[in-house]
Design a protein that fits this description.
The chain is of the alpha/beta class. It folds into three domains: about 5-90, Arc Repressor Mutant, subunit A (Orthogonal Bundle), CATH 1.10.10; about 90-160 and about 265-305, 3-Layer(aba) Sandwich (D-Maltodextrin-Binding Protein, domain 2), CATH 3.40.190; about 165-260, D-Maltodextrin-Binding Protein, domain 2 (3-Layer(aba) Sandwich), CATH 3.40.190.10. The protein is built from ten helices and 14 strands. The strands form five sheets. A five-stranded mixed β-sheet has the order 4-3-5-14-6, covered by helices on one side. Strands 12-7-13 form a three-stranded antiparallel β-sheet. Strands 1-2 form a two-stranded antiparallel ribbon. Helix 1 crosses helix 2, helix 1 (about 5-15) crosses helix 4 and helix 5 (about 100-115) crosses helix 9 (about 280-295). The model has no long low-confidence stretch (mean pLDDT about 90).
Length: about 300
């Protein structure tokens, strides 16, 4: 393997026909120039330069090597120019996956603003509550809520989240007593179902330990927004992220229950495949999402709720 710096030194010696002139041009000593050329010739096993007291000329092998090196250096220069251009004006496509309700009501507007600031970046947003395979579906980043299993994906926390169990005043007034999560067996629970879903169990913090409680109900949907609407209309209880039902909490359409059993330390996180040298456009979007979610009114609602 040959150092690009050695190639650069060699080409400048040939261009200027002098070790000392090449050294002055590259701001290194003549001794360093001579040492680099000597090591390069040793690696290649051929003499590259004819040296006289008056000038330096490439040998036949040196001319061949010089031609190849010039091509390599030009490619490096073109690549650097392209990278500089990308840094100045990032472009391309970013494919994003987000939970349906969060994606529709929160993420989509932020992505619209991002597009205004970076018009050369195209966004492909998939809003779905199903599990997405990042590699097979070529997703650059997926937004996730709640507890995440250990995985090989790169994960970046973006903003706190909090999950509540809630129902309308009308439903709670006419339903069985609800003091602990175990009382849910006497309630109609609104279920989020889709292929691979495990939402027929709700999680609660009981005696300092996270437990999954089996729940039942006569209404299922593949959309968390539908569940929120049903809960507002007194069809049962729903367990949702505050990000999903912030409006219903703010106007008191839904009332939290079992608050002392609510899971803690949840968050919205970005999940990404393990890739070296992640594209600048993705890093820009991650920073943009983190800042916008931090200043979002729902984040303040969560802070007020937990205080």
């Amino acid at each position: 393997m040959y150092e690009i710096d050695d190639i650069t030194v060699f080409c400048r010696v040939v261009d200027l026909e002098s070790f000392s002139a090449a050294g002055r041009d590259l701001r290194i000593s003549t001794a360093v120039v001579s040492s680099r050329i000597h090591k390069l010739e040793q690696k290649l096993g051929v003499r590259l330069l004819h040296r006289t007291t008056r000038s330096v000329r490439p040998t036949e092998a040196g001319e061949l090597y010089y031609s190849t090196c010039q091509s390599v250096l030009n490619q490096f220069a073109d690549c650097q120019n392209e990278l500089d251009r990308m840094k100045a004006a990032p472009e391309g496509v970013i494919k994003i996956s987000a939970p349906y309700a969060l994606g529709r009501s929160v993420i989509a507007p932020i992505l619209g603003e991002f597009k205004n600031e970076y018009p050369s970046i195209d966004i492909r947003l998939d809003v779905t509550d199903r599990a997405v395979n990042l590699v097979e579906e070529k997703v650059d980043l997926a937004l996730r809520q709640g507890y995440l299993p250990d995985s090989s994906w790169v994960m970046r926390p973006l903003v706190p989240d909090h999950r509540i169990t809630a129902g309308s005043d009308d439903y709670l007034d006419r339903s069985a007593e609800l003091k602990t999560p175990y009382d849910l067996k006497n309630h109609s629970c609104l279920l989020l179902r889709f292929p691979g879903s495990t939402r027929f169990r709700w999680q609660f913090l009981i005696n300092g330990k996270l437990e999954s409680i089996a729940i039942t109900g006569g209404l299922d949907a593949s959309s968390s927004e539908v569940l929120t609407d049903w809960a507002i209309n007194s069809k049962g209880l729903v367990q949702q992220s505050i990000w999903t039902c912030a409006g219903a909490l703010s106007d008191a359409s839904l009332k939290p229950v079992l608050q002392k059993f609510e899971p803690q330390n949840l968050g919205i996180r970005a999940l990404m495949p393990e890739r070296k040298g992640r594209a600048l456009k993705v890093e820009l979007l991650l920073d943009y999402l983190a800042e916008k979610l931090k200043t979002h009114p729902t984040n303040q609602l969560i802070q007020d709720y937990l205080s």
